[in-house]
Each structure stands twice: as structure tokens, then as C-alpha cells.
Amino acid sequence: MHRRIIAPGALAATVLLLAIPASAAPHSPGAPGIGDPYYPDYGNGGYDVSHYDLRLKYQPATDELEGTATLVARATQDLSSFNLDFLLDVGEVRVNGVKASFRTSGEQELEITPRTPLTEGAPVTVVVRYRGVPSSKQAHGFTSWHRTPDGGVAANEPEAAAWWFPSNDHPLDKATYDVSVLVPDGTQAISNGTLQSTSSRLGWTRWNWRSDQPQATYLATLAVGKFDITTGTTEGGIPVLNAYSKALGAHAGAARASLERTGEVADWLAGYFGPYPYNALGGYVPNTNTGYALETQTRPFYSPRQFANGSNVSVVVHELAHQWYGDEVSLKRWKDIWINEGFARYAQWLWSEHEGEGTAQELADYVYASHPADDPFWTVKPGDPGPENQFDIAVYDRGALAVQALRNKIGDEAFFEVLKGWPTKYAHGNASVADFQRYAEEVSGKPLAALFDTWLFQPSKPGAPAARAAAVAEGAEGVKGVSQPRSWKRIAATNGVHGHGVHGHGERGHGEPGHGAGRR
Fold first, then answer.
1. Which domain covers residue 384, as residue numbers?
2. Is 230 helix (H, G, I), strand (E, B) or coil?
3. 298 within a domain of the structure (yes/no)
4. Which residues form the signal peptide (predicted)?
């Protein structure tokens, strides 16, 4: 037996500590940002949300939205106060059933002080009653709410939630959702997941939607307007619901010819990525004047402009690929955007191969050869592009080129094992580019640090030796001898707006894919 000798001073200190009740330990405010270096004030610290229940009423004629949001959460530290990201006007907040004090600060912070401090690990229920006109609100000089002639739409990246519900607005805090929306009869409310029910009374119709798998806040969507709705089922048994604005005009036929292939595309993608991860599928095309699409979970948003030149199944492939890469496995920090966009673009290359319009290798060769070494395209690092270049075309095209370089390095057997295994390994969670590199090394048994550095992190065109090593264009420096694949224009047509900064109505541009440079 060993006897531990305690010095008198240490014993006195121990007795003093034991005399202080645990309840006297100080509680502190939760951080006003979750810690993302690209967007320091996005998200919040001190709690984790598991479920959002949103009960809303929306008047299309005036763009007035009122709602009650109930957040089911758990404190991750001892909290004296905490923040939500929100822009509309708040009338009342309750925490665990008791009225709490609140105030607004910064660009989008709702600071809440509960009457009783919250203890780490304790369950927390937050109820926020609010109203406002979303299109009248701006943060950081823009709005993510799209006003339409017959309603409004919430769909943008990296943020849209703050315009219609209070949240912990960062992909690190994923949750399930119930969204119930009351709108005038003859108007439809579209959201994520499965349509649970509709009911009408006194000139108003309530639409009840449920997303029962974890979902990032920017992937939650709401669209109110006059829509034609189609329903069906994939070959794999997943229900499909698509919605088309009744005001699409000349774009209507091409939009339908594209989105009605959603089930076929999802079943095809499952062959590469594994089983489709959700119990609902579809898309919607509102009458917005935007130029981008977005992978809103289970029900992507598409702009009418994407179908201006005819049907565009390639953009459907891109957004559905995100259901695995970006939605099921979400990024840890916004600098990890390559995992979302590089692989969604690469899915378009695989579709091109499937359609006999150019192989993934031919598309990679063309991307490499068509950008000379002094092209600014090569200065963007897909593995950490910076917030100003987060949606630059290089994140997509150079990002997909990096995927092909990886495929050539580790071989098809290991590559397709990685492609299918990644969504399973991090299912409904978050992961980084570094996590992906480690996983690819684990599956392939090959060191990949040099390859990832060359193709994702160097602000320059990989030289001829690196290109030859990755079997890309044999180091070609120009387009001579490298023909443009037939699918190239079709894929490029999905690029949407390539402008900088603000696009119409104060909306920040996010042309998906290839969103243009300069969202911030």
C-alpha cells in the first residue's frame, strides 16, 4: 500500500474548494460566432440544436411573415446568455417555458438572457415569436430572401435562415425540422422533406413538411407562390415531389424536361455514392430572376434562367450529387467547400461519360489545357479558396480536376470505393478536406499529401511533371491537340451568373455551380 502525503497548504486549499458549492461556478455568455474564420459571426457557441419546429403564416401580397419557432437544444457549457442568428422583429422569447430578456446586436445577432442560467448538458427549449417583412431586411449589405411577384423564396449559401427563422446558422449544428406554413388558398408553400398534410379553413391553407434527417440551416428552404406540383416515385422507391411556378412562361417546358428526370438521376448517382440518404426527393423552380441553383436538402432550388437555352439535366445531376456530398456529409468550416463543389462538378463529368458526350478524363484534360499558366484561374486554391473566392469557377473546375488526379493516382478500384464509402463514414455529420485526404489514404494505402497540395493548395498551375504523374493532358500547356468534349457547353451552362458581388434586388450572387467570385 502506498500512502500519499498531502502538504498542509494543499490540504487547506482542498478543504476550501470543497466548501464552495458547485452552483457558484460562474456561467458565461455563449460565443456570438461558432468559430468559422471565413464568417466569424455565423453560428453561435454554447448550445447544440437537435430540432426546429417552425409554425409560420405568410401573406404573399405584402411579404409579411409571422411565426413561432421552437428550438429543441442542449447546452454545451454553463450559459448566462446565448445568441441566435436572426433578422426579423421579435415579440417574445421563452426559455424552458419562462419569459427571457433579449436584445439585438451586430448584423444578425439575437442575444437571449434566460431568467435562470443554463447548466452544461441540460436540455433547453427556446420559443421565439416574431414577425416582419423579410425582403426589407439586410445583413452585411445584402438580402438572401427573394421576393417574387406571387410570394417569396429563402434559398442562398452560405446563409438564408436568418431571414425566416432564428437559428444556430452554421453547418456544424445540423438538426431535424418540422415546417408548417399557412398561406392564402390557391397559393402553395414548398419546403424540405415529406409533405405530411395540407388543410384548408377560412380562406387559408396550411402546408406541413417534415425533414427527419439532420439538415444544415442553409439547406432549409421555403418557397411560397403559385406552383404546379407533380409527384412520383423513383425506381428505388423514394417519393418525388417537384414544383414549378405557374409563371415560368417559355422556360416551363425545359424546366419540366429537366426536373422530371430527378428520380432517374438519383438512382444513377446511387450507383456511385451509395443509397440515397433521405426519404424524400424533388426540386422546385420559382419565378425568381436569380441565376443560380442550390442543393437545398431533398428539394433543390433551380432558377428559371438555368433553362433559358433548353433542358439542363446536368444541373440536376450537380444538385442531386450534393445530397451526398455537402448535405449528408457537410463541411466543418466553409474553407472545406471543395468537398461539396469539386465532387458535385465531378458528378457532371461522370454523367457526361454516361451520356457518351465526353469522358471524365477528357474533361479533365480540357480544363487543364484551356487555362494557361498565367490565368488567374490557377491562383484560386480549391482546398482553401478564401471567402472572396469560395464560389469561384476554379473551385468547381479545378476542384473536379483534382478529383480526376486523385482517381488516376489511386486507381479506379480504390477511387470508387472512396467515392461510395465517404458518405457512409461521415453520414449526417461534418468533415474537412484533411479528413477526406486521410480517408483516401486509408482506403488506397498510398500517401497523398503531395497530390493534395499540388492540386488543391498551390496558387499556381501544376507543372508538366505533376500533370504527367496525374495522367492529365500529358502536361499540355494549351488546347492544341485537346478537343472540347461535346458536353462542355452543357456543363458550362450550369455555371449561372459569373458576376461579382451583388446581383439585382440586393441579393448576393451565388451562381451554382461556378457562382462567380466575390460573395464577400
1. 330-493
2. strand
3. no
4. 1-24
CA–CA gap between residue 35 and residue 45 (Å, rounded): 8
Start-end of H helices in 214-373: 252-259, 262-273, 313-321, 337-354, 360-370
Give the contacts of 479 (CB within 8 A, at least 6 positions apart): 366, 369, 370
Does residue 141 have a pLDDT over 60? yes
What φ, ψ does residue 425 adopt, rounded to 5°? -60, -40
Query: Do 106 and 41 contact (CB within 8 A), yes or no?
Result: yes
Nearest alpha-carbon partner for 30 in 40, 16, 41, 45: 45
Q: Which amino acid would we find at residue 517?
A: A
Q: In the numeric block, which cell numbers belong to residue 509?
A: 450572387
Is there a domain that residue 489 lies in? yes
**Least confident stretch, 17-31, 226-240, 366-380:** 17-31
371 occurs within a structural domain: yes
- How many domains does the chain fold into? 1
Q: Does position 500 have pLDDT exceeding 50, yes or no?
A: no
**Residue 23: pLDDT over 60:** no
- What stretch of H or E contains 191? strand 188-191
10 Å Cβ neighbour count for 429?
14
On whether residue 16 sits in a domain, the answer given is no
Residue with cell 474537412: 432
Cis peptide before 513 (omega within 30 of 0): yes
pLDDT score for 479: 52
DSSP 196-211: EEEEEETTEEEEEEEE
pLDDT at 519 over 70: no
Q: Which residues contact 90 (CB under 8 A, 6 or more apart)?
A: 102, 104, 110, 128, 129, 130, 166
Q: How confident is the model at residue 20 (pLDDT cuts 50, 70, 90)?
A: very low
Query: What's the CA gap between 487 and 185, in Å, rounded?
Result: 43
Q: Is 472 helix (H, G, I), strand (E, B) or coil?
A: coil
What is the pTM assigned to this prediction?
Answer: 0.91
Alpha-carbon gap, residue 360 to 136, rounded angstroms: 45
What digits encode the pLDDT tens for the residues 66-83? 999 999 999 999 999 999
Residue 355 scores a pLDDT above 90 = yes
CATH number at residue 476: 1.10.390.10
Enter the DSSP assignment of 24: G
Angle in degrees, 0-180, between the axes of helices 313-321 and 337-354, rounded to the nearest 10:
140
Residue indicated by cell numbers 402546408: 207
Q: What percent of the chain has pLDDT over 70?
A: 89
C-alpha span between 132 and 164 (Å, rounded): 9
Summarised one tens digit per residue, pLDDT across range 33-57 is 999 999 999 999 999 999 999 999 9
User: What does the alpha-carbon distance between residue 91 and residue 67 come to, in Å, rounded to a whole number?
Assistant: 10
Tell me what pLDDT residue 24 has. Answer: 53
